[in-house]
Amino acid sequence: RFAAEADEASLSALLAFLDAAELEDNGLELGEVSVESERIQILTVHGAKGLEWDAVALPGLVEDVFPAPSKSNDWTRSRHELPSPLRGDADDLPRLDLTGAESRKDVRDRLDRHHEEVDRRHAEEERRLAYVAVTRARGTLLASGYLWDTAKKARRPSPFLDELAAVGDLALWCEDPAPDAVNPLEDRVLAREWPVDPLGASRPAIESGADLVRAAIAEQRRIGGDVAGQTRPVVAAAAGRRGRSRVEAGDLLPGLLDDTAERAAHWRRDVDMLLKEREVAGRTALVEVELPEHLSVSQLVALHRDPDELARRLRRPLPARPAPLARRGTAFHAWLEQRWSAQTLLDIDALPGSADESADHDDLAELRAAFERSEWAQRTPVEVEVPFEMDLAGVIVRGRMDAVFGSDAEGWTVVDWKTGAPPAGLEADSVAVQLAAYRLAWARIRGITDDQLPTVAAAFHYVRSGRTVAPADLLDAMALRELVVGARPDTR
After folding, report:
1. How is residue 157 annotated by DSSP?
2. How much is the average pLDDT of 340-364?
3. Which of 151, 197, 279, 407 is 20 to 30 A distant from 172 in Cα terms?
4. Which phi and psi angles does 229 have, rounded to 5°?
C-alpha cells in the first residue's frame, strides 16, 4: 500500500509511514482477501480462512502433497527448527521430558516417542487445514487427486480424498495401477523453440509483406524517383507504364486489411466500440469521479493544473509515458544524498536501468559541477529527503521534501531541486502548489501555526541554470484546503 501511494518509496519514508500508522491508525490492519463474484480466485487454504464461495475446487489430494509429509518438524532432528521450549506456543507442542533418563537408550527411546508425538500433531494440523478447505464451499465442493506426476511411482490417494469419496458423488475414480506400471508421462517429450520467435505463426505473412516493401523500394531506386535510402515506400512505378501508381497497404500486407479476415474483423469491432464509447461520453453532461482519500503531492499539483485531466486519470489509470530524463533526476538526487551523508534505501547503481546505455553520465557530471557553483553548495541542510503525511480537508497528502535549511530563529527554507528548465505562465503557478504543500508540511512538522506560516519559505533551485525561484504568493493553508474541498463534491 505504501509503495503504491508514496511519491518515492524510500526506507526513511516507510519508517515514517509506519510511525504515523501506529499513532493515528492504532496500527495497521491485517490484510484481508475479499470474495469476488463472477471470477475465479486462486488462494492457499490459509488465505481462504473465514471466507466462503458457492463452488470450491480442491485439487492435489494425494499422499505426501495434502496431507504434506512431516519433514523438519522435530527440533531434535533439525538444526533449523527453534526448540519447542523457546517458542511462544510451547504449551501446545509435544514436550521432551528427559527426567529420570539414566542411559543413552532411555534418551533415545524418549526422543523416538517425542518424534511420534510431533508426527501425530502434524497429522492433526493437516486434518484441521483440510477441514478449513472443504468448509469454504457453500454448495459445491470439487475434490480431486491424480496418479502420475514427476515421480516414478504412481501416487496414492490422500486419506482426505478417500473419506470424501465415501460420502460424496463419485464422478471418476482410477484404480491403482499395477506395481510394475511405468509413468506414461516419461514418454512425453516436451520441446520448445528457443529463442522464441516474436512473430510466431505470423512470420510467413509478415515476411511476404516485407519482400513486397523491399521490391517497391528497389523499383523506386531503379527509376530514380526517390532519394536513395528512403524507407517509406509510398509510391512505386509499374514496369512498362507511364507515371506512378500508389502501393496501398493492402498490397504490401495482403489479407490483414481485408474485411473478411478474422483479425481485421476483431480490430474493426474494437475500434467501433471505442468510438461508440467516446460518442456516449461526449453526450454525457457529468461523470462524477470521487477524489481518493490519499493524494500525492504530484496529484495535488495536477488538481490545480487541470482537474479534468486528473479525474480522467483517476477514473481510468493508464501507464505513464516513458520519462528518459527521470533517471537523470534520480541520479542527481542520490548524489546529493550521498554528498550530505544521508542514507538511502538503494544506491543509484542498484536502481533499475542503472546499466542501460542511455544513462548520460556526462550530463550528470555537468549537473554536479553546476550545483557546486551555486549558493546552496556552501550551505548544510538541517534535513534531507524528509517524508511527510498531512491531513488537508480530510484528504491525506503524502510527499517528500528534498532539503530544508535554516532554524527556528532565522526562519526555514524548503528547497526542491530541479534538473530541468523552469516553467512559465500558468504552468509555473501550478508547480508552485508543490512548494506550498512542502511549506505547510514542514510547518506542521515543526509545530508552526498557520498564522506563522510566512516564517517558512520555499523555493525551486534549477540546477543547470543556477536559478533559484522562490514564489512570493504561495498558497496558504486555507487556500490549499479550498483546492481540495472544491474538487471533492464533483471532480469532473
Report:
1. B
2. 49
3. 151
4. 95, -5
**Contact, 332 vs 419, CB < 8 A?**
yes
* 431 and 421 Cβ atoms separated by less than 8 Å: no
Selection from 411, 418, 404 nearest residue 462 by Cα = 418
User: Of 125-129, 248-252, 327-331, 425-429, where does the model show the most confidence?
Assistant: 125-129
What single-letter DSSP state applies at residue 460? E
Neighbours of 238 (CB within 10 A): 11
How confident is the model over 72-83, as a mean pLDDT?
A: 81
Strand partners, 62: 157
**Cα(first)–Cα(last) distance of the chain, in Å?**
26
Higher pLDDT, 329 or 200: 200
Contact by Cβ (8 Å): 138, 52: yes
Residue 372: Cβ within 10 Å count:
11
Whether the pLDDT of residue 194 is over 50: the answer is yes
Can you give the pLDDT at residue 341? Answer: 63
- Alpha helices by DSSP H, listed for 28-182, are 104-134, 159-167
Closest CA to 442 of 403, 395, 484: 403
CB neighbour list of residue 285: distance below 8 Å, 6 or more residues apart: none
How many whole angstroms from its chain centre is CA 30? 19
Query: Cα–Cα distances in Å, from 114 out to 72, 98, 104?
Result: 14, 10, 15
Look at residue 136 in the predicted model and tell me its pLDDT: 92
Centre a 10 Å sphere on the Cβ of residue 422 and count the other Cβ atoms it contains.
14
Residue range 404-423: mean pLDDT, rounded:
89
User: What average pLDDT does the segment 202-219 reach?
Assistant: 90
Helices (H), ranges, 325-425 = 326-339, 361-372
Sign of the Cα pseudo-torsion (96, 101, 104, 109, in order):
negative
